[in-house]
Amino acid sequence: MEIAIFGGGVAGLTAAIHLLDKGYSVRLYEKRSVLGGKVSVWKDSDGDSIESGLHVVFGGYKELQFILKHIGAEDAVLWKDLALVYAEKEGKQTSFEKQKGLPSPLAELIGGLKTNVITWRDKLSLIRGLLPLLLFGDEKYFRSQDHMTYSEWHARHGITENALQRLWRPISLALNFIEPNVISARPMITIFNYFGRNYEDARFGFFKANPNDSMIEPMRQYILKKGGIIENNARLKAFELNADDTVQAAVLADGRRIEADAYISALPVHSFKKLIPKAWLKHDYFKNLFHFVGSPVANCQLWFDKKITDTDNLMFSHGTTFATFADVSITCKEDYQAGQGTATGGSVLNLVLAPAHHLMELPNDVIVAQVMKELETRFPKVREAKLLKATMVKIPESVYKAVPGVDRFRPDQVSPIANFFLCGDYTYQHYLASMEGAALSGRAVAEKLCMRLAKKQPKELLL
Ligand SMILES: Cc1cc2nc3c(=O)[nH]c(=O)nc-3n(C[C@H](O)[C@H](O)[C@H](O)COP(=O)(O)OP(=O)(O)OC[C@H]3O[C@@H](n4cnc5c(N)ncnc54)[C@H](O)[C@@H]3O)c2cc1C
Known about the structure:
This protein has 463 residues and is of the alpha/beta class. It folds into 3 domains: 187 residues, 3-Layer(bba) Sandwich (FAD/NAD(P)-binding domain); 100 residues, Guanine Nucleotide Dissociation Inhibitor, domain 1; 100 residues, Polyamine Oxidase, Chain A, domain 2, CATH 3.90.660.20. 35% of the residues lie in helices and 20% in strands. The strands form 5 sheets. Strands 8-7-16-17-18-15-19 form a 7-stranded mixed β-sheet. The chain has a 5-stranded parallel β-sheet with strand order 10-2-1-14-20, covered by helices on one side. A 3-stranded antiparallel β-sheet has the order 5-9-6. Helix 1 runs parallel beside helix 10 and helix 6 crosses helix 8. The N and C termini lie close together (11 Å). The relative contact order is 0.18. The site of flavin-adenine dinucleotide (FAD) has 39 residues, from helix 1, strand 15 and helix 15.
């Protein structure tokens, strides 16, 4: 039985892996010349890896870790010490670390009391506001808080404004590239729960080389080895429908008609919205997709001739154009090292710029000048270092904005159209838009498709 998947991000690739494992024939069509979607990485003319965005793996990403192991890439991730590290003015660093060797939530409590990121007043308000969540919060509660922004939830729980700005604003910007007064409370408290309940789940990991070499390429190899077919530069343009609105064929931009037993869109929601056939809009399932709006974000990479930091972890910053960043010459041991492309052994910063709506139209050199000015206040060594190269990737519509009320519109992977399915980080699974969410949606679509086709096989699909 032939399955056509459109979109070669983590969702489409994991769907392909699961379907091949189940014995289906799979063809995957990706519009770009590279695979990986928002995780994609490519080499520029200097031989440097240019990343769509700095990507960090959480210890709690069980599905992603399962897939990595399954495809033989289990050692792809380098785990770092569990700490939220904040780069402060005048080159200072503060951090929030769980106390090792203690059970949760005691470990967070002691770690929180010791942190130098916030004041004692902030700490006491945090304990009062977050302890009930850590002790009693569950998935049902998190979802029930989707009607308000995180700022509202924070204020209602009596936590100080300083704790919001210093501690959680960078986290909100790292998570969804939007401000705490825009993001729904649900994703934020879900993350607190991860951070607060299990040491292993809250660890950050970096891909050993970069997301492509460590994850996407092994996925591609696995798919090819299993007999799957991957076509790059193959853009889905439209669907041709049968009289009952099922898909008769998918039409690519080069005019080819693709016929299959089932079709999966693993496109980002903003791309899929443009391709929804009019006849399908009578279903709320498809109409609801218009509630999703993409977050703009930019990723800036800076190559220096000297090391400007020795921090081997993810870092956050408040009051700067960059919300979260890392020196990938330190965190990713197999890439960005001396002798590889532009790298000379100095720092290679990979910085996520958010919020980024105002950056989309700004010239890159203006943004880089601003970032450099701010970096000097966080890392005084920048003043003595030479900037060798700067690159910028702007994504006007990246992950969907997790604003209040949108969660309930996340679609199931099974659509009302008998031979058409959705997957992607925005589709319904218990995680946020993330690599883990995309991988979960890939597994879900494969399992649900298999069940649906099994029921229909005798008369509709095997004939
Ligand atoms: C800057 C940045 C930093 C991030 N950091 C993290 C992080 O640290 N940790 C984390 O877990 N997540 C992170 N994310 C989120 C994560 O990258 C995404 O949630 C996830 O990769 C989405 O995967 P996906 O397969 O659902 O969609 P996508 O990656 O968007 O894949 C969709 C694919 O469909 C293709 N496509 C589009 N239109 C067509 C068409 N018409 N025909 C054929 N193909 C088409 C696209 O080219 C793309 O390859 C980050 C995202 C960004 C942008």
